[in-house]
Amino acid sequence: MTTPPEPPPDHEPAPAPGDEPTRARGGAPDGAPVPVLIDADADADADADADADADAGTGPTPDPGTGPAPASRVRRFWSVRRIPAAVLAALVLGGAGLLLYDVAAVRADRSAMAWRRELADGLATRPLDDTWVVVGAAVAVVLGLWLLILAATPGLRAILPMRREHADVRAGLDREAAALALRDRAMEVSGVQSVRVRVGRSKVAVKAASHFRELDEVRADVEAAVAAGVDELALAHPPALTVRVARPPRKA
Predict the structure, then answer these.
(1) In this structure, are residues 186 and 197 in contact, taking their beta carbons and an 8 Å threshold?
(2) Phi and psi of 241, rounded to 5°?
(3) Closest of 233, 194, 186, 229 to residue 211, by C-alpha
(4) Three-state secondary structure along 110-133?
(5) Are residues 123 and 132 in contact, defined by beta-carbon separation less than 8 angstroms?
């Protein structure tokens, strides 16, 4: 004996509370999470671009090292020295032009200039221990040493080189600006009335006047504040620090 099939229900059973579908438009019901729309085509295009960059070698590559590359040695800034170069070039050009003109005049059957005849006669007749010969030699030696010093030294002593975080970037800090920044840091210390800061290439000298608090405490605080300021300046060669604290002079 077979049982007849049950007729289909007249209506769909009510879905469970957790299985209620969200509406495509008009937002989600209260308490239901809002669906996140993802553009599959855009993701596919992004993946394709990333693959193409990786194949071409233009995509971002991870840094194999664990830290930044070591910075190269920082050197001082070299001065252009336009004024000494211009003066030397003008003297050489004037002397060479005058000598060439006199030589050309002599070749044209004219008499040489008086200064040239006197100079030639003096060099031929004066002894080496003559006063003017010694003075001229001393002047020539001083000028030669001055030119050698200018050629061998970088100059620009007023600019302090800073640390190089990037190989293609060089930065420098003016010594007066550094002194002003350190002075502001020292003035923030309690008990400091006035401060004088002198910044050199290898040394920072701080002279402070304190009108209250113990001098040792003020000196320690000023030294700590200025040392922190020197570290924040990011100088390539941190200068040594010297701090002196005294009482201000009494008014008569």
Answers:
(1) yes
(2) -115, 130
(3) 194
(4) CCCCHHHHHHHHHHHHCCCCCHHH
(5) no
Q: How far apart are CA 75 and CA 69, in angstroms?
A: 18
Q: Which residues contact 241 (CB under 8 A, 6 or more apart)?
A: 203, 204, 206, 223, 226, 227, 230
- 25-49 burial, b at 16+ Cβ within 10 Å, e below that, comes to eeeeeeeeeeeeeeeeeeeeeeeee
104 pLDDT above the threshold of 80: yes
When pLDDT is cut at 50, 70 and 90, the band that residue 178 belongs to is very high
Closest CA to 82 of 173, 156, 177, 157: 156
Query: Residue 17 carries which DSSP code?
Result: G
Beta bridge partners of 244: 207
Q: How far apart are CA 68 and CA 70, in angstroms?
A: 6
Digit-coded pLDDT (tens) for 215-249:
999 999 999 999 999 999 989 888 999 999 999 88
- Local structure of residue 236 (DSSP, 8 states): S
Q: How far apart are CA 120 and CA 126, in angstroms?
A: 10
Sign of the dihedral defined by the CA atoms of residues 53, 54, 55, 56, in that order: positive
Q: DSSP character for 181? A: H
